[in-house]
Amino acid sequence: MLHLNYRDAKPIYEQIKEGIRHLLLTNAIAADEKLPSVRELASNLAINPNTIQRAYKELETEGYVYSMKGKGTFASATDFIHKSREQELLMTFDDVVTELFVLEVSKEELGSRLENLKQGRMEKDG
């Protein structure tokens, strides 16, 4: 289920993209599952269909969904979605780490933080 925050500075189409991306990554929407039509989702969320269309188009460009003429928009394969998101996050990670090195944060400190994050994740999962 998508939840929009109309007070958020983030544009509505971005919130829709993030919401759908999250549903795809958590397998709440299965591979090859049909997404709601633009009109249906726009009606449910009480927003302009062009906003939904923009979100769907960008998700398709990013590889999260694909469309079939006359049939609708569908979720891409899970492994593709995960690999695509992994690449996006690694690029962001590289940018952040590069900036941290410019700020003279040591690789030891970064390594320690990574290890702490890994431990925290293991404790959450385990």
Outline of the structure:
With 126 residues, the chain is mainly alpha-helical. 63% of the residues lie in helices and 6% in strands.
Considering DSSP H and I runs of 4 or more, what fraction of the residues is helical? 55-70%
Query: Number of helical segments?
Result: 5
Strand content: 5-15%
Going across the biggest sheet, name each strand in turn. 1-2
Radius of gyration, whole Å: 18 Å
Distance between the termini: 27 Å
Descriptive tags:
single chain, 126 residues, mainly alpha, two-stranded antiparallel ribbon, 5 helices
SSE topology:
Blueprint: H1 12-25, H2 38-45, H3 49-62, E1 65-68, E2 72-75, H4 78-102, H5 107-125
Antiparallel strand pairs: 1-2
Helix pairs in contact: 1-3, 2-3
Characterise this structure.
This protein is mostly helical. The protein has 5 helices and 2 strands. The protein has helices spanning 12-25, 38-45, 49-62, 78-102, 107-125; strands spanning 65-68, 72-75. A two-stranded antiparallel ribbon has the order 1-2. The longest helix is centred in the C-terminal third of the chain and has 25 residues, at 78-102. It is elongated, with a radius of gyration of 18 Å. The mean pLDDT is 90.
